[in-house]
Amino acid sequence: MTLYAELHRHLGGSVVPRILWRYFQRNRPDISSQFAAYDAFEDFYTRPRKTLEEYLELHTLVESVQTQEALPYFIYRLIRGAYIFENLAYLELRYTPYLRTPEHLPQNERIEKMAEIVETVGRASQQTEYPVVTRQILCMHSKLPGEVNRAIVDLAAQYPEYVCAVDLAGGDAQYRDRLDELVSLYAHAQSLGINTTGHLYETTEGCYPELLPYLMRIGHGIQIPLRHPELLKEVAARGQCLEVCPTTYLKTGTLQEIRQLKTVFDRCFDAGVDIAICTDNAGLHNVRLPFEYETLLTQDVIGFDGLQACQEAAFRHAFAWPHNSQPSSMLSALLRRTRLPRAEAETVEAPSGLINQAWFQ
């Protein structure tokens, strides 16, 4: 059994259509009544959009119901599915906490309530029943005021046990008029010792080299190898990893076919730039991480060696993976212990001695 790491998954887009539909039927009939049946809702929820901006509007549908009271419901099912159906050992969930606070409150009160959201998500993610190492990435948002975004960065620093990084999300075309402010926010995050990633070079509108030096990983980043391959040398020198989410680019109209990603992988591999394959919005796409792997393989975008390199890169660039080795190495050590004579087995230790036995039962 192979265990995987998922580095780029949005809380808002992670809820699979059937789970969201059942929640609407039980708690929000005003939404479910807009659709004749589940099939109509699934078609609406998962169909491709023409632009990234149109695609991002779907997040507001889920954000409106992911209240503090409802978050444990969604997160339990999310972790359960990640463990049972995706073989995830590690998951970073990203979201904007401000957008889970009550809209009727004034801004200062919503900022104060963000801490409660982080604590709720953190507690709900710690599930012994489905042992997945889970951390949060708090997203600044291109449509939020600078005061709110700075509060999000400060909040990330207050909860190291739950939060592993900050991100910048929202429509990337809106970064242009706020570059100085965004650079300042990332510099502030760095001064607090917070890990950084950001939605950058996803579309042709999101190419801002000014922000690249402040990122430890790059959210998407596919336009670097596609349109700005001269930057790959710098990306490799910084040790930055691209978080590539294949299905997203078809859903947003950024790419017309999956095989266009072959250039992304080939140029990155040649330049020594790591890629972690991710899902982005598994619910909106109605797809799981192993399906992303299979699609890339069957469409000849990458081979098995490339796939293994990306899977290893995901654990290597994970902000909060607590072990020195990835699960495959730990499994091999454990299996070796079971095959050796007892006396010899007692002299063999798994890497770091840090194996969670529950993963393998």
From TrEMBL:
Required co-factors: Zn(2+)
SUPFAM superfamilies: Metallo-dependent hydrolases
EC primary class: hydrolase
EC number: 3.5.4.4
Coiled-coil regions, chain positions: none
Pfam families, alphabetized: A_deaminase (PF00962)
UniProt-listed InterPro entries: A_deaminase_dom, Ado/ade_deaminase, Metal_Hydrolase
Protein keywords: Hydrolase, Metal-binding, Zinc
Similarity-based family: Belongs to the metallo-dependent hydrolases superfamily. Adenosine and AMP deaminases family.
Matching PANTHER family: ADENOSINE DEAMINASE
UniProt name for this protein: adenosine deaminase
